[in-house]
Protein backbone atom coordinates (compact mmCIF):
# COMPACT_ATOMS: atom_id res chain seq x y z
CA UNK A 1 0.00 0.00 0.00
CA UNK A 2 1.55 3.26 -1.16
CA UNK A 3 0.80 6.93 -0.84
CA UNK A 4 0.63 9.02 -3.95
CA UNK A 5 3.55 11.44 -4.22
CA UNK A 6 3.02 14.92 -5.65
CA UNK A 7 4.66 16.29 -8.81
CA UNK A 8 7.03 18.37 -6.63
CA UNK A 9 8.69 15.11 -5.50
CA UNK A 10 9.16 14.02 -9.12
CA UNK A 11 10.68 17.42 -9.96
CA UNK A 12 13.06 17.11 -7.00
CA UNK A 13 14.11 13.62 -8.13
CA UNK A 14 14.69 14.96 -11.65
CA UNK A 15 16.96 17.73 -10.29
CA UNK A 16 18.93 15.12 -8.32
CA UNK A 17 19.29 12.74 -11.27
CA UNK A 18 22.80 13.92 -12.32
CA UNK A 19 24.09 13.08 -8.81
CA UNK A 20 22.59 9.57 -9.07
CA UNK A 21 24.32 8.43 -12.26
CA UNK A 22 27.09 6.50 -10.40
CA UNK A 23 24.46 4.06 -9.06
CA UNK A 24 23.48 0.80 -10.73
CA UNK A 25 19.75 1.54 -10.67
CA UNK A 26 18.05 4.94 -10.67
CA UNK A 27 14.32 4.97 -10.01
CA UNK A 28 12.19 6.57 -12.68
CA UNK A 29 8.93 6.13 -10.76
CA UNK A 30 8.77 7.23 -7.17
CA UNK A 31 6.52 5.72 -4.54
CA UNK A 32 6.10 6.00 -0.81
CA UNK A 33 5.48 2.54 0.60
CA UNK A 34 3.43 2.53 3.80
CA UNK A 35 2.85 -1.24 4.09
CA UNK A 36 3.88 -4.22 1.99
CA UNK A 37 1.18 -6.81 1.47
CA UNK A 38 2.80 -10.00 0.28
CA UNK A 39 1.58 -11.90 -2.77
CA UNK A 40 0.34 -14.90 -0.75
CA UNK A 41 -1.98 -12.58 1.22
CA UNK A 42 -3.41 -11.27 -2.06
CA UNK A 43 -3.78 -14.78 -3.49
CA UNK A 44 -5.71 -15.82 -0.39
CA UNK A 45 -8.44 -13.35 -1.25
CA UNK A 46 -8.00 -10.17 -3.27
CA UNK A 47 -11.50 -8.87 -2.53
CA UNK A 48 -11.07 -9.44 1.19
CA UNK A 49 -7.71 -7.63 1.21
CA UNK A 50 -9.23 -4.69 -0.66
CA UNK A 51 -12.11 -4.43 1.83
CA UNK A 52 -9.75 -4.65 4.82
CA UNK A 53 -7.63 -1.88 3.30
CA UNK A 54 -10.72 0.20 2.59
CA UNK A 55 -11.87 -0.07 6.22
CA UNK A 56 -8.52 1.15 7.54
CA UNK A 57 -8.16 3.91 4.94
CA UNK A 58 -11.76 5.13 5.33
CA UNK A 59 -10.94 5.78 8.99
CA UNK A 60 -7.73 7.67 8.14
CA UNK A 61 -7.80 11.44 7.90
CA UNK A 62 -5.52 13.17 5.40
CA UNK A 63 -2.23 14.05 7.09
CA UNK A 64 0.89 16.17 6.47
CA UNK A 65 4.04 14.73 4.91
CA UNK A 66 7.43 16.42 4.65
CA UNK A 67 10.62 15.58 2.79
CA UNK A 68 13.54 17.57 4.13
CA UNK A 69 16.69 15.65 3.30
CA UNK A 70 18.48 12.79 1.61
CA UNK A 71 19.82 9.73 3.40
CA UNK A 72 20.86 6.16 2.58
CA UNK A 73 20.80 2.58 3.80
CA UNK A 74 24.35 1.25 3.51
CA UNK A 75 23.26 -2.37 3.86
CA UNK A 76 19.50 -2.72 3.28
CA UNK A 77 17.71 -5.88 4.45
CA UNK A 78 16.23 -6.39 0.97
CA UNK A 79 18.23 -6.17 -2.25
CA UNK A 80 21.67 -4.71 -2.80
CA UNK A 81 22.87 -1.44 -1.39
CA UNK A 82 23.46 1.22 -0.79
CA UNK A 83 19.96 2.63 -1.22
CA UNK A 84 19.77 6.42 -1.54
CA UNK A 85 16.44 7.92 -0.59
CA UNK A 86 14.44 11.04 0.20
CA UNK A 87 13.87 11.11 3.96
CA UNK A 88 10.17 11.38 4.84
CA UNK A 89 8.86 12.81 8.09
CA UNK A 90 5.23 12.21 8.99
CA UNK A 91 3.63 11.00 12.17
CA UNK A 92 0.52 10.26 10.08
CA UNK A 93 2.44 7.74 7.97
CA UNK A 94 3.83 6.06 11.06
CA UNK A 95 0.35 5.80 12.61
CA UNK A 96 -1.12 4.41 9.39
CA UNK A 97 1.75 1.91 9.12
CA UNK A 98 1.09 0.67 12.68
CA UNK A 99 -2.63 0.26 11.95
CA UNK A 100 -1.90 -1.67 8.75
CA UNK A 101 0.61 -3.89 10.60
CA UNK A 102 -2.18 -4.89 12.96
CA UNK A 103 -4.37 -5.79 9.97
CA UNK A 104 -1.80 -7.58 7.76
CA UNK A 105 1.31 -9.71 8.41
CA UNK A 106 4.50 -7.73 9.10
CA UNK A 107 7.40 -8.20 6.68
CA UNK A 108 10.38 -9.04 8.91
CA UNK A 109 13.29 -6.57 8.95
CA UNK A 110 11.39 -4.01 6.83
CA UNK A 111 8.31 -3.16 8.84
CA UNK A 112 7.05 -2.66 12.36
CA UNK A 113 9.81 -1.10 14.46
CA UNK A 114 12.18 -1.30 11.45
CA UNK A 115 9.95 0.79 9.16
CA UNK A 116 11.61 3.92 7.77
CA UNK A 117 9.33 6.05 5.57
CA UNK A 118 11.30 6.98 2.46
CA UNK A 119 11.22 7.44 -1.30
CA UNK A 120 13.95 5.47 -3.05
CA UNK A 121 16.03 7.38 -5.58
CA UNK A 122 18.78 4.89 -6.47
CA UNK A 123 20.55 1.72 -5.37
CA UNK A 124 23.74 -0.20 -5.95
CA UNK A 125 27.19 1.36 -6.09
CA UNK A 126 29.46 2.72 -3.43
CA UNK A 127 28.73 4.00 0.06
CA UNK A 128 31.05 6.93 -0.69
CA UNK A 129 28.76 7.98 -3.56
CA UNK A 130 25.73 7.58 -1.28
CA UNK A 131 27.40 9.77 1.35
CA UNK A 132 28.09 12.48 -1.25
CA UNK A 133 24.47 12.50 -2.41
CA UNK A 134 23.21 12.53 1.20
CA UNK A 135 25.18 15.73 1.82
CA UNK A 136 23.10 17.54 -0.82
CA UNK A 137 20.93 20.32 0.58
CA UNK A 138 17.38 20.30 -0.74
CA UNK A 139 14.39 22.58 -0.41
CA UNK A 140 11.77 20.79 1.72
CA UNK A 141 8.70 19.42 -0.03
CA UNK A 142 5.47 19.35 1.96
CA UNK A 143 2.05 18.04 1.05
CA UNK A 144 -1.08 16.53 2.50
CA UNK A 145 -1.44 12.81 1.92
CA UNK A 146 -5.03 12.25 0.85
CA UNK A 147 -4.79 9.31 -1.58
CA UNK A 148 -3.42 5.81 -1.33
CA UNK A 149 -3.00 3.04 -3.87
CA UNK A 150 -2.01 -0.55 -4.16
CA UNK A 151 0.90 -1.28 -6.46
CA UNK A 152 1.39 -4.42 -8.52
CA UNK A 153 5.17 -5.01 -8.58
CA UNK A 154 4.92 -7.59 -11.35
CA UNK A 155 3.00 -5.35 -13.77
CA UNK A 156 4.47 -2.10 -12.37
CA UNK A 157 1.15 -0.29 -12.13
CA UNK A 158 -1.40 0.97 -9.64
CA UNK A 159 -4.24 -1.51 -9.08
CA UNK A 160 -6.58 0.05 -6.51
CA UNK A 161 -6.97 3.69 -5.52
CA UNK A 162 -8.33 4.93 -2.22
CA UNK A 163 -9.17 8.37 -0.83
CA UNK A 164 -8.31 9.11 2.80
CA UNK A 165 -11.49 10.46 4.38
CA UNK A 166 -11.27 10.05 8.15
UniProtKB/TrEMBL annotation:
Q: In which domain of life is the source organism classified?
A: Archaea
Organism, by scientific name, is Halolamina salina
Ligase recorded as keyword = yes
Which named protein is this? Answer: 2'-5' RNA ligase family protein
Q: Report the GO molecular function annotations.
A: ligase activity
Alphabetical keyword list? Ligase
Amino acid sequence: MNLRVPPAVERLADRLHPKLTPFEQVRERHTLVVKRIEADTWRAGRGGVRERLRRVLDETKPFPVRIDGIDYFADPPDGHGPVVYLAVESEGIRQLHRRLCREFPVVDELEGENYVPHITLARGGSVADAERVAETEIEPVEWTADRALTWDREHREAVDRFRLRG
